[in-house]
Amino acid sequence: MTYSKLTSTELLGIRTLGELKKAGYQSRSIKQELRDNLIEKITSKQNVFPGIWGYEETVIPDVERAILSMHNINFLGLRGQAKTRIARMMVNLLDEYIPYVKNSELHDDPLAPLSRYAKDVLADQGEQTEIAWLHRDERYTEKLATPDVSVADLIGDVDPIKAATLKLPYSDERVIHFGLIPRSHRGIFVINELPDLQARIQVALFNILQEGDIQIRGFKLRLPLDIQFVFTANPEDYTNRGSIVTPLKDRIESQIVTHYPKTIETGKRITEQEAVVKPEQKQLVRVNELVKTLIEQIAFEARESEYVDSKSGVSARLTISAYESLLSTAERRALINGESSTYVRISDLYGVVSAICGKVELVYEGEVEGPVIVAQNLIGKAIRTQFLNFFPDPEKSKKSKINPYAKVVEWFSAGNEMELPAEMTDREYIARLKTIDGLDDFVDMLSAYSDAQEKLFMMEFALHGMAEFSLVGKQNLDQGMKFQDLVSSMFSGPGEDDYDFDQDDDDDRKPF
């Protein structure tokens, strides 16, 4: 019986080298281990990287090919493309437990000792050498590359205190304090943002990757480390803080390019999986698929925006944070109004501006506009894009004999205005939308909806969409939105009038 056929309980019961050999244990490298376990998962039709969406036909096959080839890997891609997550999930391809010489600093394989300590213990105790078991989760090490990372941090240094205590010369390997990489022996070692690592530190990795030896303060030590290296990096044309030196890049066998979700549906799946939604929010706030689509569309618009630095990228964290903020915006409104439930509104999208501002890096033109204006414009573009999936193209409708937008536009052209405060009650929200002549019939004629609340959502969506296509005017207010005739909106700047949205005093409001 080989050790791989034993249960975890049986494995953990093995305490000495002799028992381990009797159980049929055979050493194998970590890359061989990853390869063997991947083959087993592929042949048994198991999902190797569950929860990673949008990479089924691109990145994941590349990762599997790299593992089968027993390559070190560099993930190259913009921020928020699941590079680190994939690296962390490679741990699931490791054996649950592996044996090592008890108390050995480098978790030495009992059948292939590496450190001086393990070799001495094995020579002294033989088959009575005590062994311990290392869980797969303890075989993963991750380091963020920063300019202050030193060779000592990664590889090691001479410990003068240890040398003095043991009365050993600095040429003795027992005085070495090993860094992160040697301590990751028989494990996965990840360096995130590799270009940020100083060039001289990158050079120190050459021999470890290629030859398996290390040098510490002129002392050369043959240390054939058994490590699966994984690196992550942004494209070099984005970061001006550094780059991957060519000889190091040459030693990393597989470079895998990641990407953002290619479809809205993929983005929605990622957002729903990652967003933290409280149970009470689920009970209090109802959402529909369209608002989820609009959240994803904002990210798609940002990636194409002339105001956003495309080389920086727009992380998937934008949509995750935006969705969480959207729910909190609706939740806050319901709590203020003392309502036991509420339905999400289009105007709630403008409550996610703060979640967008910190997630996009603006070019000069965007900085001139300001992050808040850019975020609002992105929301408007998302509404404009999705509007055409539900309603006729306003440009084409102008030329048709029957213009479905005519009645609503005429209502505003007659001098009517509509204010939609962000925190108004559901009852007031319904009353104001139904006041707009023709909007109710317009949605009934052209939109499909499942209930009365979704119909109201579509009515507001239609109103915002018409504003984006310049059929009616829209003005941002401190406490919401105001819709009016397009010509009138061109002559009234934001904040020109002071509006009182006290719902208990109808006399303070302008007429609809």
Outline of the structure:
With 512 residues, the chain is α/β, with parallel strands linked by helices.
Helix content: 40-55%
Number of self-contained structural domains: 3
Distance between the termini: 84 Å
Give the structural class.
alpha/beta
Number of contiguous helices: 25
Rg computed from alpha carbons, rounded to a whole number of angstroms: 31 Å
Largest sheet strand order: 4-7-10-1-11
Low-confidence stretches: 494-512
CATH C-level class of the largest domain? Alpha Beta
Supply the key terms.
512 residues, alpha/beta, Rossmann fold, Helicase, Ruva Protein, domain 3, 3-stranded antiparallel beta sheet, 25 helices
Task: Note down, in words, how this protein is organized.
With 512 residues, the chain is an alpha/beta fold. The protein folds into 3 domains: 3-257, P-loop containing nucleotide triphosphate hydrolases (Rossmann fold, 3-Layer(aba) Sandwich), CATH 3.40.50; 261-389, Magnesium chelatase subunit I, C-Terminal domain (Helicase, Ruva Protein, domain 3, Orthogonal Bundle), CATH 1.10.8.80; 392-512. It is 42% helix and 13% strand. The chain is built from 25 helices and 16 strands. The strands form 6 sheets. The protein has a 5-stranded parallel β-sheet, with helices on one face. Strand 15 and strand 16 form a beta hairpin. Helix 19 packs across helix 24 (452-468). The radius of gyration is 31 Å and the shape is elongated. The protein starts with 7 loop residues before the first helix and ends in a 22-residue tail after the last helix. 35% of the residues are buried. Mean pLDDT is 88; it is low at 494-512.
